[in-house]
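From the thread on structure requests for the teaching lab: each student submitted one protein with a one-line request. Submission from student K.M.:

"Model branched-chain-amino-acid transaminase from Megasphaera paucivorans, tokens only."
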Amino acid sequence: MEKVNLDWASIGFNYRKTPQRYVANYRNGKWENGYLTTDETVVLHESAGILQYCQEVFEGLKAYTTQDGHIVAFRPDLNAERMIDSAKRLEMPPYSKEMFLQAVVAVVKANAAWVPPYGTGASLYLRPYMFASGPVIGVKPSDEYQFRVFGTPVGPYFKGGAKPLTLCVSDFDRAAPKGTGNVKAGLNYAMSLYPYVLAHQNGFDENIFLDSATRTYVEETGGANILFVTKDNELVTPKSDSILPSITRRSMLYIAEHYLGLKVTQRPVKLTEVEEFAECGLCGTAAVISPVGKVVDHGKEICFPSGMEKMGPITQKLYDTLTGIQQGLIEAPKGWIKIID
Ligand SMILES: *Cc1c(COP(=O)(O)O)cnc(C)c1O
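Reply posted by the TA:
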């Protein structure tokens, strides 16, 4: 496969048009057969449900080249399942796991020249999403929907090493206890932009959101789950019904327990105990793990012993093991790597 001529290491995380994307429409009570198209634009009814009442859900996953030359995707079945859960919560017709995987495979194969070569650290980021395309004006679920998947090549997340981040404890809330924090919907991001911009203006990389009911427990950032390592090398991740179930976090918990032999615990984590942890990181598909060096709570600085120069040792082991599994250097648990080509 002849690859397109890109400087893979420096393409960054930006939208870059690839030749083919997948489209399927839901009309008359059923999903129609999907197809590939070169048209990256979407023409919508002026009163489409997505435009008026924000009925939309999405996913994010990566396809990349392994050492032995295969193009693979990491646990795409979990993205398919999560998108079904998200769709149900927003009263949208679920797009089946089989159809989801078929669409992902079709997009990757059709854009194989845009899947970065092995060893570049880059990947083809895939964005499946679904939105209400039919008109609504009274508040109700739409009658028509569109499912799409496009791919865009993205560079290695950390250029020149992973610099630890500084987080601030936000005064805003991300999710209500029985709200939509546990589903991957664009609406959760729309309302996080204001606190995100504010955090940046104040010199922070990301917000930590607390549980909105009591504002005492740590939830997550705007787009990544949080993990902590105790001084006894135990991996702790916050447990809450309003956290997005990150596939990276779930994979990390498995790796910590089964590959690294660490104790793992999912439990509510109080903000007041954060200062007792040895390491902290953010996890998600884009960065795998971004180390956190410091959390600032209204002027009070919590500095992790791992410091502001590099990842903590356990975070580094988790990162190396997961990326090793993804690249085919370490044997993967059964079903984690889907070979596409
Ligand atoms: C997508 C997302 C994550 C990360 O999930 P992954 O499956 O690991 O990519 C974490 N938090 C939020 C709010 C998200 O939308």
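TA comment: The domain at 8-154 is CATH 3.30.470.10 (D-amino Acid Aminotransferase; Chain A, domain 1). The first strand starts at residue 21 and ends at 27.
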